[in-house]
Automatic annotation (TrEMBL):
Family according to the record: Belongs to the FIS1 family.
Membrane topology: Single-pass membrane protein
Domain notes: The C-terminus is required for mitochondrial localization, while the N-terminus is necessary for mitochondrial fission.
Subcellular location: Mitochondrion outer membrane; Peroxisome membrane
Native species: Drosophila rhopaloa (Fruit fly)
GO cellular component: mitochondrial outer membrane; peroxisomal membrane
Organism lineage string: Eukaryota, Metazoa, Ecdysozoa, Arthropoda, Hexapoda
Role: Involved in the fragmentation of the mitochondrial network and its perinuclear clustering.
Keyword Transmembrane in annotation: yes
UniProt GO BP: autophagy of mitochondrion; mitochondrial fission; mitochondrial fragmentation involved in apoptotic process; peroxisome fission
Gene: LOC108038062
Membrane-spanning segments: 127-149
CDD domains: Fis1
Protein name, as recorded: Mitochondrial fission 1 protein
Keywords in alphabetical order: Apoptosis, Membrane, Mitochondrion, Mitochondrion outer membrane, Peroxisome, Transmembrane, Transmembrane helix
Length: 158
């Protein structure tokens, strides 16, 4: 397993996620608003969760932060690429990697981009193999149906 695999498969400890979720909800209940710092801490935990729904929620918060808080955009964009890669949303992941690399050159982001490209290519190849297999099965079924129909016609002629 390469380091990018390890990084993407590393899961946030549940107690960290719960602590930042509690802080997020507490601020929301108290002020009706959550600080940028708390939103980022919470979304950072969410995109490292083992659950896809958590990751998607983290992505939504990061997208909002990237729109409304330009100072942290660099970090938000990186974790948007990271979160999308974790849920196999490779097109979005690549989009965020490229957006980051437009801002600055970064080896970690470049290796994430390479990783996403490789995974995306694997998914495409897997999809083509499945589609090819399905076509063979369908062709086999049609061929069998035609053979059975011809066989039935022969028997009816006798």
């Amino acid at each position: 397993m390469n380091t990018m695999d390890e990084l993407l498969n590393e899961v946030v400890p549940q107690e960290d996620l719960e602590r930042f979720e509690k802080k997020y909800n507490h601020e929301l209940e108290l002020d009706g608003e959550v600080t940028t710092e708390t939103k980022f801490e919470y979304s950072f935990c969410l995109v490292r969760s083992r659950y896809t729904n958590d990751i998607r929620k983290g992505i939504m918060i990061l997208e909002e932060l990237a729109r409304t808080h330009p100072d942290g955009r660099r970090d938000y964009i990186y974790y948007l690429a990271f979160g999308n890669a974790r849920i196999k949303e490779y097109t979005s992941g690549l989009k965020y990697c490229r957006a980051f690399l437009d801002i600055e050159s970064n080896d970690q982001v470049r290796s994430l981009e390479e990783y996403i490209k490789k995974q995306s290519d694997k998914e495409v190849a897997k999809g083509m193999a499945v589609a090819g297999g399905a076509a063979l099965v369908l062709g086999g079924i049609l061929g069998l149906g035609i053979a059975m129909a011809k066989n039935k016609q022969k028997r009816e002629k006798k």
